[in-house]
């Protein structure tokens, strides 16, 4: 984890528009880092709203910082995304559209506090359905697949979200001894999160332990109580309810998608073919739960990182389960793979979640209920 000195960058308003706040940025940084500190005060002020503490993650998509709210001291995560390519713009907008479309919060889904669009030294708070010219330039870039704004201008999107201090699900689980209590808690939280997303017409499309973050809390008695938060919505799809009954929870399963995307070890067979629905999320969650229960891992070739995930062994090679099922739809899955025995209800549910035929998988709402029943009635998974 890279350590940085505290960065305090001020942001001063110049004027307001009806559809958002326009601001001029004052950069004040001890190391001259070109980092935006977002301040949304409805007054002229040199006082920043957030103070960036340190960088906690970096990738090709963007940089994530730990920050604190100056007024309250609350910890937040600030993600900075450079919009220098159509691919980055599309990923950023997909995340914004998904998180901003949610009208209520869920304890197991990352919460977007606010989003700011920056162009050079100008910044504007983003809102869903905005008619801002800056926002529309990004939308046009995403739709056309080519940069439609002045390439000499630096565009960034800043996401202010929940800060999760426990790392991702891989790091959390693989650094601790297996625990039935933790497994039970995690599967219930994941089931609840996915039902919430599908109820809000959001298909995640990249569910994997790397994209599930942990917030470390404690009970009143002082015992650890980790909370999962599904994150990274860059590949997500918000399904239109046009022509469907928006009150019907299962309608998300009638939204057919054709863009094959995701991470290969968690992709359903139909995703490889490019014709799938929200049931692909059920398959991915089946991979995660099975791997969590039995501690099935593999080593990523590129990063050499140990990851939770179930797969098929073919000689000396490991093959993603979805790809293997596509080649052999009648393949019998060996569940349990490592444990001597497994709770019958859990075993049956995992088999159904990993069915080749999406119609044979439970939807997210049935899945949530069945996970609750398993947790309540069959707490000992080893019998």
Automatic annotation (TrEMBL):
Catalytic reaction list: L-seryl-[protein] + ATP = O-phospho-L-seryl-[protein] + ADP + H(+); L-threonyl-[protein] + ATP = O-phospho-L-threonyl-[protein] + ADP + H(+)
Compartments where found: Nucleus
Keywords: ATP-binding, Kinase, Membrane, Nucleotide-binding, Nucleus, Serine/threonine-protein kinase, Transferase, Transmembrane, Transmembrane helix
GO biological process terms on file: negative regulation of G2/MI transition of meiotic cell cycle
GO terms for cellular component: cytoplasm; nucleoplasm
Pfam families per the UniProt record, alphabetical: Pkinase (PF00069)
GO MF, any single term: ATP binding
Transmembrane segments: 7-25
Binding positions for ATP per the UniProt entry: 80
Protein kinase domain sequence ranges: 50-374
Alphabetized InterPro entries for the sequence: CC_SR_Kinase, Kinase-like_dom_sf, Prot_kinase_dom, Protein_kinase_ATP_BS, Ser/Thr_kinase_AS
Broad class of enzyme this protein falls into: transferase
Signal peptide start and end residues: none
EC assignment: 2.7.11.1
Family: Belongs to the protein kinase superfamily. Ser/Thr protein kinase family. GCN2 subfamily.
Name the record gives this protein: non-specific serine/threonine protein kinase
Originating species: Oncorhynchus tshawytscha
């Amino acid at each position: 984890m890279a350590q940085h000195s505290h960065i305090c960058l001020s942001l001063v308003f110049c004027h307001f528009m009806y559809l958002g706040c326009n601001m001029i940025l004052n950069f004040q940084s001890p190391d001259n880092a070109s980092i935006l500190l977002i301040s949304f005060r409805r007054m002229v002020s040199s006082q920043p709203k957030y103070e960036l503490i340190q960088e906690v993650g970096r990738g090709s998509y963007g940089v994530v910082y730990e920050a604190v709210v100056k007024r309250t001291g609350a910890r937040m995560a600030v993600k900075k995304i450079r919009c220098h390519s159509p691919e980055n713009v599309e990923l950023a907008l997909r995340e914004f559209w998904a998180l901003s479309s949610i009208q209520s919060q869920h304890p197991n889904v990352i919460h977007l506090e606010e989003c700011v669009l920056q162009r050079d030294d100008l910044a504007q708070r983003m809102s869903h359905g905005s008619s801002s010219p800056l926002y529309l330039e990004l939308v046009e870039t995403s739709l056309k697949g080519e940069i439609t704004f002045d390439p000499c201008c630096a565009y960034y999107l800043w996401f202010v979200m929940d800060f999760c201090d426990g790392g991702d699900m891989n790091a959390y689980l693989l650094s601790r001894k297996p625990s039935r209590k933790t497994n039970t808690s995690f599967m219930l939280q994941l089931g609840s999160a996915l039902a919430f997303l599908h109820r809000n017409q959001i298909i995640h499309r990249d569910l994997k332990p790397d994209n599930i973050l942990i917030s470390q809390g404690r009970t009143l008695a002082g015992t650890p109580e980790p909370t999962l938060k599904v994150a990274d919505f860059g590949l997500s799809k918000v399904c239109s309810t046009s022509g469907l009954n928006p009150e019907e929870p299962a309608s998300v399963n009638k939204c057919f998608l054709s863009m094959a995307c995701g991470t290969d070890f968690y992709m359903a067979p139909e995703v490889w073919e490019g014709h799938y629905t929200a049931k692909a999320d059920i398959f991915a969650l089946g991979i995660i739960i099975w791997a969590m229960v039995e501690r099935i891992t593999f080593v990523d070739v590129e990063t050499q990182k140990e990851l939770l995930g179930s797969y098929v062994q073919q000689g000396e090679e490991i093959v993603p389960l979805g790809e293997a099922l596509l080649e052999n739809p009648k393949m019998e899955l060996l569940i349990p793979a490592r444990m001597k025995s497994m709770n019958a209800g859990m075993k049956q549910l995992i088999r159904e979640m990993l069915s080749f035929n999406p119609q044979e998988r439970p939807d997210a709402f049935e899945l949530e209920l069945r996970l609750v029943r398993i947790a309540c009635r069959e707490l000992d998974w080893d019998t």
